[in-house]
């Protein structure tokens, strides 16, 4: 049986390596201006994605440019609904000018992490997506509140694994504040990705746990991002894993 996996990366966030990364991914999560980027970068990133035949997704965040969307924030559900929907609308408008459409939505930073634990936030995000286009896929970690709520609300979920991050026993990512949160070598990343895709497990400090993975994310702002993504792209087919 052929195994296949999507490779995604957060793009349009002001990093200098977008053009170097894009040939090695199949889905791009494009910043919608609330944590990074603006209308100009959205145009540039969409053009780059189309040139490389990469799917386009919205990467909505809390309105937090100062902290790159990585600070937890509290909003009433209706306000959060508008925050998420506005960003999807903004990217869709730009995409339409390039005669293309969105494929998915993946929350960014603190919004992603909070939606993984908080059902009310997860529900609000899903409601915003459904109100705009219920055919949009949701990128979320397996076992997360967002993945469960999205399934309940009949949205299609792409379960996400992280190539350059370690995991805790409950299946959540190790917080960036901890010294072992990131993987630093190419071989560590390759072994980690192969395990996630082939075995649908990850190894934590306390042992192996199950995880569903349809798409692999490498963070584009990492210092070794281009090296890691290129290595994953080149290695997976050697193990009969199709990148789609």
Number of domains: 1
- Going across the major beta sheet, what is the strand order? 1-2-3-4-5-6-9
Strand content: 15-25%
Low-pLDDT runs of 5+ residues are none
Q: State mean pLDDT (0 to 100 scale).
A: 96
Q: How would you describe what is shown here?
A:
This protein is α/β, with parallel strands linked by helices. The chain has a single domain (3-243), classed as Alpha-Beta Barrel (TIM Barrel). The protein contains 8 helices and 10 strands. It has helices at residues 18-21, 39-51, 77-97, 109-117, 119-132, 145-152, 186-199, 225-235; strands spanning 3-11, 27-31, 55-59, 104-105, 137-140, 157-162, 201-204, 207-210, 215-217, 241-243. The strands form 2 sheets. Strands 1-2-3-4-5-6-9 form a 7-stranded parallel beta barrel, surrounded by 4 helices. Strands 7-8 form a two-stranded antiparallel ribbon. The model has no long low-confidence stretch (mean pLDDT 96).
How is this structure best summarized?
By secondary structure, the chain is α/β, with parallel strands linked by helices. It contains eight helices and ten strands. Helix 6 links the parallel strand 5 and strand 6.
Quick tags:
244 residues; alpha/beta; TIM Barrel; seven-stranded parallel beta barrel; two-stranded antiparallel sheet; 8 helices; 10 strands; 18% strand
């Amino acid at each position: 049986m052929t195994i296949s996996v999507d490779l995604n990366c957060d793009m349009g966030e002001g990093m200098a390596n977008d053009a170097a990364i894009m040939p090695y991914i199949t889905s791009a999560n494009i910043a919608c201006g609330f944590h990074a980027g603006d209308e100009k970068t959205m145009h540039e990133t969409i053009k780059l994605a189309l040139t490389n035949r990469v799917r386009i997704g919205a990467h909505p965040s809390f309105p937090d440019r100062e902290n790159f969307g990585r600070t937890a924030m509290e909003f009433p559900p209706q306000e959060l609904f508008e925050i998420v929907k506005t960003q999807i609308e903004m990217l869709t408008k730009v995409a339409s000018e390039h005669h293309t459409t969105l494929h998915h939505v993946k929350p960014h930073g603190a919004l992603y992490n909070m939606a993984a634990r908080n059902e009310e936030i997860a529900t609000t995000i899903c409601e915003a997506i459904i109100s705009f286009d219920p055919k949009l896929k949701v990128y979320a970690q397996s076992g997360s509140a967002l993945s469960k709520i999205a399934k309940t609300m009949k949205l299609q979920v792409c379960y996400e694994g992280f190539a350059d991050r370690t995991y805790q026993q409950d299946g959540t990512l190790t917080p960036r504040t901890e010294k072992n949160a990131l993987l630093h070598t190419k071989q560590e990343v390759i072994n980690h990705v192969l395990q996630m895709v082939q075995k649908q497990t990850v190894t934590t400090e306390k042992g192996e746990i199950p995880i569903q993975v349809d798409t692999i994310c490498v963070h584009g702002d990492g210092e070794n991002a281009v090296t890691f993504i290129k290595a994953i792209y080149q290695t997976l087919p050697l193990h009969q894993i199709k990148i789609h």
